[in-house]
Structure formats: C-alpha cells, structure tokens
Amino acid sequence: MKTKTNITSLDQILDKKYGKKGEPLREKWEQEFEVFRLGVLLEEARTKLGMTQEELAKKCGTNKSYISRIENNSSDIRLSTLMKIIQQGLGGQLKLSLEL
After folding, report:
1. What residue spans define the domains of the chain?
2. How far apart are the first and last CA of the chain?
3. Among 56, 66, 50, which residue's Cα sits nearest to residue 87?
4. Could you give the CA distance from residue 95 to residue 93 in angstroms, rounded to a whole number?
5. How much is the pLDDT for 4?
6. Alpha-carbon gap, residue 60 to 76, rounded angstroms
7. 65 vs 27, 54, 75, 86, CA distance in Å?
8. Per-residue H/E/C for the chain
9. Do the beta carbons of residue 39 and residue 72 sit within 8 Å?
10. d(CA 88, CA 58)
C-alpha cells in the first residue's frame, strides 16, 4: 500500500509568506529570527548554569533589565557587549560564521 505525503518544508512556507531568500521582506524576517535565536541561546545557557538574570548581569557588568531585554528580543546588542556576556558572564566563547 502506497501513501502520499504532503509535507511542506519551513523554507516553502517562508517563500510563500515572505518571498524567496534575498527579497527584502524575507531578509527582514531572517534577521529578526537570528536576533530571537540569540536571545533563546543566551537564556538556555544561563538557565543551564543555574544563574538568574541578575547574577549574570552582575558578572558581566550590566543590569538585569538589559539581560531580560536581550533574552526577550527587545534590545539590540553590540558585539562587544555580547562577547562580555558570553565570556565573563557565562564563561563561554563566541564563535561566528559568515555565509555568502
């Protein structure tokens, strides 16, 4: 017995809603998603280490509300500040990649 699956990929959904990669609306969505993803990664790392936002803020010289805004995608973050949070606050290292 043969069954037919109608599975739609995320890229197909995004193509339909925001256009193909490279189109302005799609690029805006991709950028906002990466900012969201960064906040989630920082929150996961912090909670894995058993730290509160306040404890993380103290370790890296900022305040709790700034950490909260980053985790909730409500604030832009400078690379130097991000590195300080990751290195001093979380004891980790930031690795970047570039895709063309």
Report:
1. 23-89
2. 44
3. 56
4. 6
5. 67
6. 17
7. 29, 8, 10, 17
8. CCCCCCCCCHHHHHHHHHCCCCCHHHHHHHHHHHHHHHHHHHHHHHHHCCCCHHHHHHHHCCCHHHHHHHHCCCCCCCHHHHHHHHHHHCCCCCCCCCCC
9. yes
10. 10
Name the region of 22 (left: φ>0; alpha: ψ -120 to 50; beta: rest): left
Query: Residue 26 burial (CB < 10 Å; 0-12/13-18/19+)?
Result: middle
Distance of CA 16 to the CA centre of its chain: 23
> What is the pTM assigned to this prediction?
0.80
Burial class of 53 by CB neighbour count within 10 A (0 to 12, 13 to 18, 19+): buried
Cα gap 15→39, rounded to integer Å: 25
pLDDT in tens, 3-55: 667 899 999 999 999 999 999 999 999 999 988 999 999 999 999 999 999 99
At the top level of CATH, the class of 23-89 is mainly alpha
